[in-house]
## 1
Amino acid sequence: MDYNTLQSDFRNIKGWVFDLDDTLYPPTGEIYAQMAKRICEYVMKTLNLDEKEATVIQKEYYRKYGATVWGLMVEHDVDPEDFTNYVHELDLSSLKKNPRLKKCLDNLPNKKFVFTNGAYQHAERVLERLGLTECFSGIFSIREAEYIPKPALQTYLKMLETFSLNAKESVMFDDSPANILGAKRAGMRTVWISSNVENNKYCSVDTQDFCDYETPDLITFLSALLMDKSA
Ligand SMILES: [Mg+2]
C-alpha cells in the first residue's frame, strides 16, 4: 500500500461510516449461526410451522422478496420491528473489548457512524461489548432505513442525509462486496474488509472494481492511514 497516496486520498473525509457485523469485529460464524437459528424460530412460532417447513418458507421469501422479513410483512402482516428485535437477541459474550480499534477510531478526524442492516439495539449491544460506544456519533439501523436494507441506493442516500454527510466526503467500510458496490454507486469512497470468506464465496458482485481499497484487517488499514506504526 502506498501510504502517501492513501493519506491524501482520505484527507477530505468528513464522515467515516462503518458496517457493524463482521466489520467492527472479525467474522464469527458463531454469532451468524445464532441469528440464523433465531430467524428460523421466529418463522416457526409466527406461522406455526415445524423447523423443516420454516426453512422452506424462509428460502422462498428470500428468493421472492430478497429478505425473509419482507415476505413476512407482505404475506403475513408481521411487524418488522418485532422480527428484527427478536432475531438480534443474541449471546454476544464471545465479543471482547478492542482497545486497539478504539485508539484508531479516536485518532481519525471528524465524525464516525455505524450503518447496519441489523437492529438498533443490536448495534448498541455490540458497540458496548467492543468498548466502542463513545467512538460513534450515530447509528443508522434497519429501523432508520425503514426496513429497506443495504445495498438499496435510497438507503445510502437516507443515511447520508440523516448524518448531514456529502457522499464525496464520506467513506464506507463493509465486509459485504454487494454493500460496498452500493456505497460506491451512492458516490462514497469504499474500503472492503475482505476477511469474511463466506461473503467472498456467496456474495459476488458483477464488477471487478467495486471497491476503492481492500484490506483483510480494519486495524491494519486504519493504522496505515494514521501512520501509526505501533498499532
Ligand atoms: Mg457485515
Note: The chain has a mean pLDDT of 91.
## 2
Amino acid sequence: MKKIFWNEMTMNEIGALDKEKTVIIVPTGAIEGHGPHLRVDCDSFIVTEIARRVALACQNQDITAVVIPTLQFGYSEWMDYPGKISLRSKTFRSVVWDVCKSIVDNGFKKIIILNGHGGNPNFLAITAQEFYQEYKVIIPIIDYLRISIDIIDKVIETSFRHADEGETSVSLALGMDIDMKKATKEVPYMPHEIPKAKDILGAPQKVIIPLTKITERCKSGVIGDATLATKEKGEEIVHAVVERTAGYIKKFLQY
Ligand SMILES: [Zn+2]
C-alpha cells in the first residue's frame, strides 16, 4: 500500500511522484463549538478521515492520491461558542492560496479541495477562481455535504445543520469517540425554512443570506437533533461521499 499522507513522506518520495497524474487532496475544516458531545475539531476530523478513505479508494482504481495536512482553521467568524479559532476571510483565502501555490511549485497539476465546514465554500470558490486566472490550474472544490446531499436527505430524519443528527452520525461512522448521553436537541428560529439539506445546499439556492450569529439563538451548540444520530446513518453517508468523490477524481484526471 502506498503512503497517503504528504507529511509522512520523504522529500525523495514526493519528488518521485508523477506530477501529471497524482492528485493532491487539500482537506479544509474548522475549529469551533459543536455542542456538548462533539470535539471542537469535528469538521477537521471528519474531512481528514474522509480524505484518507478517498485516497484509499483512488488507490483501488490505480490512481495515486496524496492528502496534505488538513487546514484545521476555517472561516467561523459568526460561530462564537467556546473553543472557536477562526481565520478572517482574507486570511483564510491567503492560506488556501499559498498552500495551493506551494503544491503547484512542487510541479503538481491536479489539486482537489475537500471541504468539511459550512463556512468555507464561498471563500474557497473565490480563491479557486482567482487561482485559475493566475496559474491556469483548475481546483475543484468538493464539499462532502453537497456531494452526498440526496443520500443525506434520504438517511437522516431532520435537516443537516450543525452538530446535529447528520454531523453526529458521520462522526460516529468515522470513529470519533462520542459520549452520546451528552447529545442534545435544540431547534432555534432560522431566518429561512430548511425542510431538507438540499433546500439550503442545493444549487441554485432560492435565497442566499449571510451566516448569522447563531450563538444568540442557540445556546447548546446543537442546531437540530443530535439524539437521533446513529453510526449506521453516518456509514451510509460516508460510503456515498467516498465513492462519489473517488469517482469524480477519476473523471477529473481525464479532463
Ligand atoms: Zn461541523
Note: The chain has a mean pLDDT of 92.
